[in-house]
């Protein structure tokens, strides 16, 4: 009975009792960007600090985030490391834009995130979920972390490009995993860099890689423009139909490619982790509820 009541603890980075030193941070961040945090990062809404001569702010407060990113964005800047790690794969999409350019892109992209537009993507998400269920039914033991990771990536590729199971989709999936698992890991050079181009030798692999998704997405855009593809309900078609709200001009292929890459590389990792931890909590609740029912005295009525 104790073994049933005792929760299953999945492997997770250690949460430090106190803030770690800068040297320790530079060493640990190569393995995990979550494992560098102390308990106060999960308890305090705003943390002001200074590292490597740079004033930093960690926000967990929605109002604070809104103030920094929208109301008073001119007074704040993202760390250089963020640009060095992210721009090679997302380009200058909405995730990387700042200030007036960010507002322009937000206005331009707003129509593809309306309830009616998003509802048109639901068949893609449903298909990805059904595919996951089929994989789960084929085995008695599965790695849920990997399963949800694959499913979230599957859903993004379906919703973006209507990609069926094919060599093209497999190559996209391989590109994403390679970057996330290897090239996206921060290095000490990212921490010490004061510009995106500093320590160019440390950026060489990322910049070489950047051409791969750019060419792959560009090919899909060119093929869709050529074929029309009006019957395909996906984000690529929605992006092709967008017009700048101020000028009425369509998005360029470069702009569409940047938004596609942004959604591809930034749109599935957090979702897959959320699905895993949600399933863990549901399993714990189900286990404890089952035990509680077993221990409940029978109803005399």
Descriptors:
mainly alpha; Cytochrome p450
Q: Quick recap of the structure?
A:
It is built from 15 helices and two strands.
Description:
The protein is mainly alpha-helical and about 300 residues long. The protein has helices at about 1-5, 20-30, 40-45, 60-70, 80-90, 100-110, 115-120, 120-135, 145-160, 165-185, 190, 200-225, 235-240, 255-265, 270-295; strands at about 45-50, 55-60. It has a two-stranded antiparallel ribbon with strand order 1-2. The radius of gyration is 22 Å and the shape is globular.
* Number of contiguous helices: 15
Strand content: under 5%
Please bin the fraction of helical residues: 55-70%
Using the 3D structure, state the CATH architecture of the domain at 108-285.
Orthogonal Bundle
CATH class of the domain at 108-285: Mainly Alpha
Q: What is the count of β-strands? A: 2
Mean pLDDT, as a whole number?
85
CATH topology of the domain at 108-285: Cytochrome p450
Helix and strand succession? Answer: HHHEEHHHHHHHHHHHH
Strand neighbour order, sheet with most strands: 1-2
Shape, principal axes of CA atoms: globular
Which stretches are poorly predicted, pLDDT < 50 over at least 5 residues? none
Task: Let me know the CATH homologous superfamily of the domain at 108-285.
Answer: Cytochrome P450
SSE map:
Blueprint: H1 2-5, H2 22-28, H3 40-43, E1 46-51, E2 54-59, H4 62-71, H5 80-90, H6 99-109, H7 115-119, H8 122-137, H9 144-161, H10 167-183, H11 188-192, H12 200-227, H13 235-241, H14 253-266, H15 269-295
Antiparallel strand pairs: 1-2
Helix pairs in contact: 5-12, 8-9, 9-15, 10-12, 12-14
